[in-house]
Design brief:
The complex is a heterodimer of chains A (332) and B (234). With 332 residues, chain A is mainly α. Chain A has 15 helices and four strands. Chain B is 35% helix and 26% strand. Chain B has a six-stranded mixed β-sheet with strand order 6-7-8-3-9-10, sandwiched between helices. A four-stranded antiparallel β-sheet of chain B has the order 2-1-4-5, with helices on one face. In chain B, helix 3 runs parallel beside helix 5 and helix 6 runs parallel beside helix 7. Chain B is globular. The chains are: A mainly alpha (332), B alpha/beta (234).
Chain lengths: 332, 234
């Protein structure tokens, strides 16, 4: 049954795609600087920035699905946590703005890592309920604890004049924010792609596929999973901090499960199996929502219809459909 | 006599039911030991206890003379103990080559080419495991356990669901690897043709206890084993 080595040479998978990926990333970053000129108005630019915050949150949710095989109904917890930590620390001048920014990203990441260590082996509905509970617990705290950040009224705050030596005025200018958010999204997607190709990323994918087998080929299955939770939370925290910075305002709705659910829908519509899918889903859904603005009160029905159609016609989302069509084209 | 793996007083209870009752087993380096018995005899449970899958079992497991009873499955794997499962247990969405490569990372970047060649998987290297045939999946399952040349291999019905020809092929591979790599094998198998063709020694379990132990000829001739498991046809 033995064959001579080299009879059929396997396609050895290396990181040879990485330079191409980096070229695409740089091109996307450069393209981002044209966004303010594409948008017809400041309002459109602002909507664009908001869609990019959504894209980051959806990317975070999708990454958990893709890499850990876990569905989260509470990813807004880390979105809100990022925004709240930054806003509260800055508003009360408890630390320097730079430290506030670092903590706004570090605290949600650490919380998610610890959460991941605890729930790494919890699957299915139980996992979804746990994530929901975390998000709603934080929502309730933000909603009821008025001394923290004015409870359900939400809290406005002034940005510090400078951050890392740079003026912050532009962070509330849509033309600046849209370029910044786009750039961060591109870097985040590149980072996630590189992570998924790394050893830890591939081990996490193996654990997602078959945890028991992963243990018996010699891997700890908890740490890689917890790391994925942490990375996903970091992306959500970046989105939350950006939104808080841009609006100069935080509110308990940043933690709400409906935001987590919407991000999950965006990820599914775009294609959670693909790194770029959730971001595309978020942007597409955001603009469908905007176009359907005149039917605002029917918006949930429109989202529901889109979700039903996507689930039935495009089970792997928009990106999955594009890939399938591309694959058919290649075969012909 | 160098013992590769030894179980002393192995016991496993599920509530009031004792699946494994004070079983002793000792397997020499390079030996292929068959583990046979009727359904419910405790064969898979014994492998679960030895490999660390069973929680809080009684008794002691020694790997090359070192007590590994308190080690996790991953720690036992790094010390040279590998196993396969009754049910095919692979990574369905990963390609054959990718999952073997990942398996090699756990054992100091071991060579995956040799297992790919030994188990004739090279032509399937790029295929997702879910898309290959059942027989190929069983060989992949075995290959995952063989990455890094484990010293002890615990196999739970590796020939289950295979055709006669595939089963005998598998038996030849196991015998060959035991000879060339010096790997010690504990083989749970219902296919007596496979068992008698490659095993050096056989342990018979019945109702969670060791019923008999000896060479193939001794076990075949043992009236208690014939009555409990083999029947008169063996």
């Amino acid at each position: 049954m033995t064959v001579a080595a080299g009879d059929v040479a396997p396609r050895v998978k290396t990181r040879r795609g990485t330079p191409l990926l980096l070229v695409l990333g740089v091109a996307a970053l450069v393209a981002g600087f044209t966004l303010p000129w594409i948008a017809p108005s400041k309002v459109a630019m602002s909507l664009m920035a908001q869609s990019l915050f959504d894209a980051l949150l959806a990317t975070s949710v999708g990454f958990l699905v893709r890499q850990n095989g876990r569905v989260s109904f509470g990813q807004a917890a880390f979105f809100g946590l990022g925004g709240y930590v930054f806003a509260i620390l800055v508003a009360r001048s408890l630390v320097t703005p730079e430290v506030a920014l670092v903590l706004a990203l570090a605290v949600p990441t650490l919380v998610a890592f610890l959460f991941g260590l605890v729930v790494a082996r919890v699957t299915g509905v139980a996992h979804a309920m746990l994530t929901l509970a975390i998000g709603q617990a934080l929502y309730e705290i933000a909603f009821r604890w008025r001394e923290l950040a004015k409870g359900d009224d939400g809290m406005s705050f002034d940005l510090p004049a400078r951050l890392f030596g740079l003026p912050t005025r532009g962070l509330q200018d849509p033309a600046v924010m849209v370029v910044l958010a786009w750039s961060i999204l591109v870097v985040a997607l590149l980072g996630l792609k590189l992570f998924s190709q790394s050893r830890t990323g591939q081990i996490a994918a193996a654990i997602r596929d078959n945890e028991e087998r992963a243990r018996f080929i010699g891997f700890s299955t908890t740490l890689p999973r917890a790391l994925v939770y942490a990375i996903a939370a970091l992306i959500a925290a970046i989105a939350g901090t950006l939104q808080a910075t841009y609006n100069g305002y935080i509110a308990p709705q940043m933690f709400h499960w409906s935001l987590s659910g919407a991000a999950l829908v965006m990820a599914i519509v775009g294609g959670a199996k693909f790194i770029v899918g959730p971001a595309i889903g978020a942007i597409v859904l955001f603009y469908i929502k905007d176009l359907a603005g005149q039917f605002a009160e029917y918006w949930p029905a429109i989202v529901g219809t889109v979700l039903v159609v996507v689930t039935l016609v495009m089970p792997e989302g928009i990106v999955g459909l594009i890939k399938r069509i591309g694959g058919l084209g290649q075969r012909r | 006599m160098t013992l590769a793996i030894q179980g002393i007083g192995l016991t496993r209870r599920f509530g009031g039911f004792t699946a494994l009752d004070n079983v002793d087993i000792a397997i020499r380096q390079g030996e292929i030991r068959g583990l046979i018995g009727p359904n419910g005899a405790g064969k898979s449970t014994l492998i679960d206890v030895l490999s660390g899958r069973a929680r809080n079992p009684g008794g002691q497991v020694l790997l090359n003379g070192v007590d590994v009873s308190r080690l996790t499955p991953q720690q036992r794997r790094k010390r040279g103990m590998a196993r396969s499962f009754q049910r095919t247990n692979i990574f369905p969405e990963l390609s054959v080559e990718q999952q073997l490569r990942i398996a090699s990372w756990a054992v100091e970047d071991a060579d995956t080419d040799e297992v790919m060649d030994e188990l004739d998987l090279r032509a399937l290297a790029d295929r997702p495991a879910a898309e290959i045939s059942y027989g190929d999946q069983r060989r992949l399952d075995l290959a995952l356990a063989l990455v890094g040349r484990p010293r002890v291999l615990l196999l739970d019905e590796p020939a289950a669901g295979l055709t006669m020809e595939e089963s005998l092929d598998l038996a030849r591979i196991l015998r060959d690897l035991a000879n060339r790599w010096g790997v010690t094998v504990l083989l749970v198998e219902h296919d007596m043709q496979v068992v008698f063709s490659i095993c050096d020694q056989i342990t018979v379990l019945h109702l969670g206890r060791s019923l008999s132990e000896g060479s193939c000829a001794e076990v075949r001739a043992n009236p208690t084993v014939i009555a409990a498991y083999l029947g008169t046809e063996a």
